[in-house]
Structures are given as structure tokens and as C-alpha cells.
Amino acid sequence: MKKISMALFGLLSMANVNAASLTVDGGWNKFTFGGAGSSWSETFSFTLTNAAKFSVTDAFLSGDQFSFTDGHTIWSTSTPVNDGTDFGSDYDAALASTKFSSLSVILGAGSYTISGLTTLSPYGGGGAAAQLSSVPVPAAAFMFAPALLGFMGLRRKAKNTVA
Questions:
Q1: Architecture in CATH for domain 2-137
Q2: Angle at Cα 71 formed by Cα 121 and Cα 66, nearest 5°?
Q3: Would you state the pLDDT for residue 12?
Q4: Would you say 134 and 25 are in contact if contact means Cβ atoms under 8 Å apart?
């Protein structure tokens, strides 16, 4: 049943949409949508050589909600607060606000085509945006590497003293 619903979601979301190519750290890519159940005006295609963060956020008036898929996984954005908050096209502020529906997912290396549906739209349509951003290597990884090398050295020393 899950495979059938994912296939149906994919077919419905591909109808009458444009393809947009995303690049990592290329900024926000706007799309429009109609009422609940409508597809996004854009599908997003890209290939990643390293992991990257794919983010979707509502903008303008809070209250819209989305689901999107890469053909294998279906994600849903957070539940919005429909109180008329308006950040205009400041997508960074909308992504940071709990009043706007948004979601960021980490995607691994590979090729992707992401399409989406509007699941809630109290205003009958609007605008939103998606972006790809690089995933920085955590500073802890740089601190962990010397410790790992130290443990490997201790292990080697222990093996040499036993023999």
C-alpha cells in the first residue's frame, strides 16, 4: 500500500510543473503553489557529490504546509501557526521562525528530483522556497582525530610490549 501511495504522490506532483536545477549554496529558489492538494510550480533536480542540506520553507503569510518526495521518501514540513505573520520573501527569517512551516533534511551523495504538494493552504495559494546548503564538518571532528590517533598509538605500543 505504501508503494502505491508513493507512486500516486509522485505522479500527481509531477503534473504541469517546471524543472529547476539547484546548486549547493546557490541561495533560495522560489516556487508557487495553489490550494491544498496542488503541486508546486517547480520540481528541483540536482546531483550531490557530498552530503547537503535541502530546506523548504513557507514565506509571506504563515499558514501553508507541504509534503515533498524524492520518489523514495516522503517528508512533511512542520505545522504552521496561522496568525497572519508576514516576513515577505525573507526566507531565512521564515525558516528560523516556528510560525512558518519548514523542514531541512540531510541528503547523501547522489542524484535527486524533488517534487512537492501543498497539504494546507488557508489562503488558497502562495509562495515558498527551497535551497541546498553545504553541511560543514563539525569542529568536534577535528578535535576527535588527534584523540583517535593517540588511541591507535597506545594500542600499537601495547601490542609491541606484549610480544
A1: Sandwich (2.60)
A2: 15
A3: 45
A4: yes
